[in-house]
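Quick one:
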Amino acid sequence: MPTVKFNESQIEEFCTIFKPFEEDVKNEYMSHFFRFKNASVTIYKSGKVVFQGSNLEMFYDYLEKDNKQLSLDFDEDTPYDYLNTIGADEVGTGDTFGPIVCAAVFVKAYDTEKLKNIGVKDSKKLNDAKIKTIGKYIKENYKYRVNIVRNEVFNDKYNILNMNEMKAKLHNQNIESLSKEVKYEAICLDEFVNRFKYFKYLNNEGFKDISFEMKGESKSIAVAAASILARYFFLLEFDRLEKEYGYKLPKGSGKNAQNMIDKIRNDGKENLFYHIAKTSFKNFNIK
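Output:
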């Protein structure tokens, strides 16, 4: 999310020039908000100015004029948690067994502390029991979208779509659908590819109003909530697979996964792999 720092006179000047696009603000940390076609600008009381959207070129000349020496940088301290944010993340892409799950969750700014207090953080730092408890709470109390790619679907489509292309399409579906239902101020996606490649996978037709953040779970409570919700649905599907097919399946793709592959092969049940595993993973080439 591109940001700059304005002093008081620069804020006043910006507000004067772009006043026709100004809307009322309802967030206590914001002083001004402007909505344009395919872009928005938020000015915080701290002087931080956040530019969002796919049409930011319109601001370049303004930022460069009068030797302001301002440019669009990526600020590590982006205030997503002060905004009503759609966060998106996925799980299961590194697991031999089980589905891929992409989730998007809408979190209003005033819910940030509540979610932190119940333990919302990067799902990789929570055990399965916590994931199921917190995930159920998020599912019941927040607007969300989830796409679950079961193993049969993944195995059928992998030769057509690579993993990142599949994730891009799933996230785009979730975000575009959820954005129509809520009044968001920011959209943050945990970055698995850069913006250029993401939209290339979507033939440059995807939902554009997205910020990409490495380690997004640590920068946005909404992304952390999405990672937990995705893991919650992953665990539910994992439990179903174990119950239906009678194997205690390991998570991840390490030695335990390889041992399970060998066991199922030794049991003469290789036909199960199509239903319970991602057969394109390299450990299936190990005999």
